[in-house]
Design a protein that fits this description.
heterodimer, A: 206 residues, mainly alpha, 2 domains, 3-stranded antiparallel β-sheet, rod-shaped, B: Arc Repressor Mutant, subunit A, 4 helices, 13% strand, elongated
Chain lengths: 206, 124
């Protein structure tokens, strides 16, 4: 089998573009994808033992653009990594990808963002309480209409008149536990949905 | 306001594309039932034995996903063509799954055929 240098260069440019877009993937997996597609393109473009320019063009066109192809590989890779990593960053990254593909993914993303946000607020308030013992914590204030409102304060600025620190130093253990609990629960639920979605892309629902 | 017609050809094509796409996983697993095949051979098998028009850019990521789910496994084999090819085979889990999916497919297509019998005959 022979291949002209122009054809070889064209194939390498295509595979190089694809490889760059797979840069976030595990090296071994990305290398295997590139080698498999190199083998496919070579088979597809070969005619009478020679790789022709027309054959190569047709093979590359049939595969589609490297951006679209990489996106298909990356979507599942992200979802798979979210399943095993348990990292909120990884989970959010995969949910963003899922949200770009379906409405269900969008709502799961919104739920996860809210869960992580409140978890982070609780942790932050608990962590900063020792530095701002008189202004940080869970506070209750009278508002202009005569009702009361609650708010988490990280302790910067002054406390509005009439305010009361509801939990005092209890915000430290409660904030840490509730905050991390919420982050873990959000991750657990998001990963459960990701797992269901990932399987539903291949297998019919029972 | 513009209403789309029930006989809108674009709408019909889209439905057919979704239908074919939904069958692709089953078709790939079924193509591997008789033994190992590499990517291009799977594509040729699907084109030859089914009415599926398969995009190459869809099949390879799908094979990768099926592998990640443990339904197929792969190995590199040197070929007479002078370069290695990645061959796929069904795992025991994949074999079990394709049986389940084939059963579901058969039940579903039988019930749809009964439902569509009158339509096919053109009865009113």
């Amino acid at each position: 089998m022979t291949m002209s240098s122009d054809a070889q260069q064209k194939m390498e440019v295509y595979l190089g573009k694809l490889r760059r877009r797979l840069r976030d993937m595990n090296d071994e997996d990305a290398r295997e994808i590139i080698e498999e597609l190199r083998s496919h393109i070579t088979d597809k473009a070969t005619s009478d033992g020679e790789i022709t320019a027309a054959g190569l063009d047709a093979a590359l066109a049939a595969l589609g653009g490297p951006e679209e192809l990489a996106s298909q590989y990356m979507t599942d890779d992200l979802l798979a990594r979210a399943e095993v990593s348990r990292s909120p960053v990884r989970v959010l990254e995969s949910l963003f990808r899922w949200a770009s593909l379906s409405v269900a993914g969008f709502f799961i993303l919104i739920g996860a963002v809210i869960g992580y946000f409140f978890g982070a607020v609780l942790i932050l308030v608990a962590a900063l309480k020792p530095f701002h013992p008189h202004t940080g914590g869970l506070w209750i204030f009278p508002n202009a209409s005569g009702d009361f409102e609650m708010s988490f304060r990280i302790g910067f600025g002054s406390v509005p008149a009439g305010g009361r620190d509801v939990l005092g130093w209890w915000i430290v253990p409660i904030g840490w536990m509730a905050g991390w609990g919420l982050v873990m629960l959000t991750t657990y639920i998001a990963v459960w949905f990701v797992r269901q979605y990932r399987r539903s892309r291949v297998l019919p629902r029972r | 306001m513009k209403h789309s017609s029930a006989s809108d050809p674009a709408r019909g094509d889209k439905w057919e594309v979704q239908l074919r796409k939904g069958c692709l996983e089953l078709a790939i697993l079924a193509a591997l039932w008789d033994g190992e095949l590499y990517g291009l051979a799977i594509l040729r098998r699907l084109e030859g034995d089914s009415d599926l028009i398969v995009s190459e850019g869809t099949v390879y990521p799908l094979l990768s996903r099926l592998k990640a789910l443990g339904l197929v496994q792969s190995e590199w084999v040197e070929s007479d063509a002078g370069h290695p090819r990645k061959y796929y085979t069904l795992t025991p889990a994949g074999r079990h799954r394709v049986c389940e999916m084939a059963g579901m497919w058969t039940r579903f297509s039988s019930s749809m055929s009964r439902l569509l019998a009158s339509v096919a005959k053109g009865d009113r």
